[in-house]
Amino acid sequence: MGKAVGYATEKPTVVQRTKHFFADFVRQWEIQSMIWPGVIFMFIFCYIPIYGLTIAFKRYTVIDRIDSAPWVGLENFQIILSDKFFWESVVNTLGISFLKLAIGFVVPIILAIMIYEVSLSGFKKFVQTISYLPHFLSWIVLGGMLINWFATTGLFNELLLTLGVIKEPRNILLDPDKYWWIATLSDIWKEAGWGTILYLAVMAKIDPTYYEAAKIDGANRLKQIWHITVPNLKLMISLNLILTISGLLGSNLDQTLVLMNSQNREKAEVINSYVYRMGMTQGDFSYATAVGLGVSIVSVILLVSANAITKRLNDNQSVL
Fold this sequence. Notes:
This protein is an all-alpha fold. It has helices spanning 2-8, 14-27, 29-47, 75-81, 84-104, 106-117, 121-132, 139-150, 155-163, 179-191, 196-203, 208-216, 221-232, 234-246, 253-259, 265-268, 271-281, 285-313.
């Protein structure tokens, strides 16, 4: 018996693990044939290009190869620290991102609960379809709509003139002080409905007997939502919060390129558009790569920090 126990707890050697791996690979070749193309794709287009990050520490031009460009160490990062235009883009990015976090994060949760509480199936499907629709439209289309609506002769000004709110029309997109709100609210309009999908999927799995028991105990609908629906959404809310916080420095580039103009640039320029302008427009690839690398490092730190905080709030249960 002692030998049997000792044999059972003996760790397999590297050769044995390798044999088991290839045996499982052959046995599951149908499943592996679906997985490995994706793995190969990620390796080619996501991991091999990491070598290109070295140009953040070089003085690279289009006539150089990555390996032939001269090393400059941390020179590009020193330039970043003294670049006022970069820090303006950081302020704009954080301002817009925090508004989206404060408002846009809560709206899909409330909308999902409202849709879930609707008893008429036909009306529920209609509301879901209408709320999902903007997500499938590109920012080129939605941005064009907003530009027309906010124009001097657009729908928005006509409505305000009719209601007597303003005395003369003006193009709101040309006002830099209002851009953060335009970017935030338009993004919520586009993505709020799509953001309800995961919450609705979780709520669909809630046992209906919980609500029946709460109703018997005298709980009204609001108390049922607060004590049953919301606690069941806690893990999904935590997961979305982690992903949202980790993306605070990654404002929507498509939205910015469509809505930004020469008048509102001081409030509309975000880090992504700044990197795009420095790299693709001005050809300073080393500087743009250094900015992108720095943003990626900070995003990873935000991801780990948000995960640690939510883990403590969820009784040391991680959602990642």
